[in-house]
Amino acid sequence: MTDVDPNQPPDLHADTHPSRYFQERLLDDPTDADAWQGLHISYADMAAEWREFTDAQTGYAGSVRAGLRHAEPAEWAVEICCGTGEATPHLVAAVPRVLSCDLNLPMLTRHAPVPGVLWFAADVRQLPLGTGTVPLIVSLNGVFNPSEIARVLRPGGQVLWCTSFREGTPLYVHPDRIHRMLGEARSGEWSAKGEAVGHGEWSLFTAP
């Protein structure tokens, strides 16, 4: 991790970061096993220092808290790519029941102590969730896999996709592109709204 001024967004060299490279490969070809493995290895390598890094960032998960104010009430929610759980307390404060998952066990086992959360290991390529069942999916700096998100989301369900540093986030995908790809994954008209918050950004998409 890079030492940064907590009052300024860190320069993570997002344009050339391995995470950006692998995410772009996966958007082009979701079956690219080498890209999935590259992401898995790189985040496992960062796990030991992850909380130290995120704790030093002012408002790291503020976009999640702000975006949840615009989401429809949900009886439960799934947080994907939860990492070490920086966004999870904000989700628990807004939703009665929360399931938080990540494939990366070195990250997941270092999660923040948030009571009442069901933590589990899961791959965003194949979530252990029923088709059309989830009312709300939330992710902060997650890996975007539109086909699986569209599969598990219920009709009228919502996706809150957040970043900590907007375009400076290595796993950044522009909201317009997310909107388009969700529409390709599930036909019908998806609504979208969002805004910048601090260094980050939230985008809320509602399924047809």
Fill in the keyword field for this structure.
seven-stranded mixed β-sheet; globular
Walk me through this protein's architecture.
By secondary structure, the chain is an alpha/beta fold. Helices cover 34% and strands 22% of the residues. The chain contains 7 helices and 7 strands, in the order αααβαβαββαβαββ. The protein has helices spanning 18-28, 33-55, 62-68, 88-94, 105-108, 146-152, 175-185; strands spanning 77-79, 98-102, 117-121, 134-140, 153-163, 191-197, 200-206. Strands 3-2-1-4-5-7-6 form a 7-stranded mixed β-sheet. Strand 2 (98-102), helix 5 and strand 3 (117-121) form a beta-alpha-beta unit. The longest helix is centred in the first third of the chain and has 23 residues, at 33-55. The termini are far apart.
On the 0 to 100 scale, the average pLDDT is 95
SSE arrangement, N to C:
HHHEHEHEEHEHEE
- Secondary-structure class: alpha/beta
The rounded distance between the terminal residues' Cα atoms is 40 Å
Total beta-strand segments: 7
- Spatial order of strands in the largest sheet: 3-2-1-4-5-7-6
